[in-house]
Amino acid sequence: MAEAINATLRTEFGKGAARRARRANLIPAVLYGHGTDPVHLALPSHETFLILKATSNALLELSFDGNSETALVKSVQKDVVTNDIEHIDLLLLRRGEKVNVEVSVVTEGESAPGTIHSVELQSLAVESLAIAIPTHIVVSVEGLEDGTVVRVSDLQLPEGTTTEVDPETPVVVISVPHLEEELEELEAENALGTDAASDEAPAEESDEA
After folding, report:
1. How far apart are CA 173 and CA 47, in angstroms?
2. Compositional bias (Acidic residues) spans (predicted)?
3. Is there a contact between 73 and 3 (Cβ–Cβ < 8 Å)?
């Protein structure tokens, strides 16, 4: 579902204008797509930040200058020091349009006792209807045993969502962790082996007669 945002048209451009906009608690943005001319906008900083914090593929219902357009947040530029949003690229969408996005993978449940799970694929590239982009892909690890591998082909994708990723790609792997004591024993054995090898090494012959 698209989040409603009241935007304003920007008439000033350049670094100075962008700094002034940010001081006024506005985020510079550009709306483009479908062969239309780019539209330069300013978005309310706090409201936009909260929307982007909640989802990585945010849909916005933009109202500006008497117009209303639906857009997908395509990219976000942030200050490397303050992490403040400096600029947003918005992709213009039409009704019924599909988009290609990256959707995060999350797990739920607990694997079998004594095992842990590792997420091998943090996000999945999918094609989805713009108005129904999944917020995440859920993988249940409940009760899964050591050695279990959940692959892309095992994922339950929402209706209307597809992926071109290799079906055999591992997503989550279940394993038994190495105990700290076992690691210490291995390190001790390696150390003893190194010392023994040093003791058995032949002494170099003296050059003296």
Report:
1. 38
2. 197-209
3. no
Q: How far apart are CA 92 and CA 114, in angstroms?
A: 49
pLDDT tens sequence across 32-78: 988 888 999 999 999 999 998 877 788 899 999 888 999 999 889 88
Q: How far apart, in whole angstroms, are the C-alpha atoms of residue 147 and residue 151?
A: 13
Instruction: For the chain, give the secondary structure using H, E and C.
Output: CCEEEECEECCCCCHHHHHHHHHCCEEEEEEEECCEEEEEEEEEHHHHHHHHHHCCCCEEEEEECCEEEEEEEEEEEECCCCCCEEEEEEEECCCCCEEEEEEEEEEECCCCCCCEEEECCCEEEEEEEHHHCCCEEEEECCCCCCCCEEEHHHCCCCCCCECCCCCCCEEEEEECCCCHHHHHHHHHHHHHHHHHHHHHCCCCCCCCC
Q: Model-level pTM?
A: 0.67
- Enumerate domains of the chain plus CATH numbers: 3-94 (2.40.240.10), 100-175 (2.170.120.20)
CA distance 153 to 141: 15
The residue among 33, 21, 32 whose CA lies nearest residue 8 is 21
